[in-house]
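Colleagues,

For the teaching module next term, I've prepared a clean inverse folding example: a structure given as tokens, and then the sequence designed for it. I'd like students to try predicting residues themselves before seeing the answer, so please don't circulate the second half yet.
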């Protein structure tokens, strides 16, 4: 791991986004932007899984520092009759960034949606996961979407 002992503690935030194709077959089962399958409420369960993944990022990715996370916000939106978008934002006061935590949270949220909906259809595609914003530390990054 990189030694961050000499770095200053700053407010750091990262936001990642995952685009996911569910297809009309799955989206048609939603009522009021929510779907419940035999496994339970899809979006609520996926958000909890994403938050757990953020907290365990350093256990999953070998060179990540364990971090004291201040906050995690995960939002899932139905974009159209076939797709959803997952946005995961993570904040800390610390010496290292939270990009990997945001990317991990968005990814595991998508994987959980897949797991909970696969009995309806296995035509789902987790299309893209990307960092969309990072602030704090040496540099700020905002990706034009």
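(Answer key — instructors only)
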């Amino acid at each position: 791991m990189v030694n961050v002992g000499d770095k200053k503690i700053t407010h750091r935030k990262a936001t990642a986004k995952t685009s996911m194709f569910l297809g009309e077959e799955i989206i048609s089962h939603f009522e009021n932007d929510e779907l419940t399958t035999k496994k339970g409420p899809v979006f609520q369960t996926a958000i909890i899984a994403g938050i757990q993944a953020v907290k365990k990022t350093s256990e999953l990715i070998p060179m990540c520092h364990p971090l004291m996370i201040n906050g995690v916000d995960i939002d899932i939106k139905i974009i159209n009759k076939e797709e959803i978008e997952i946005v995961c934002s993570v904040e800390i006061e610390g010496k290292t960034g939270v990009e990997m935590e945001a990317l991990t949270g968005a990814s595991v949220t998508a994987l959980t949606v897949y797991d909970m909906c696969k009995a309806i259809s296995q035509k789902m595609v987790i299309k893209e996961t990307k960092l969309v914003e990072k602030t704090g530390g040496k540099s700020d990054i905002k990706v034009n979407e």
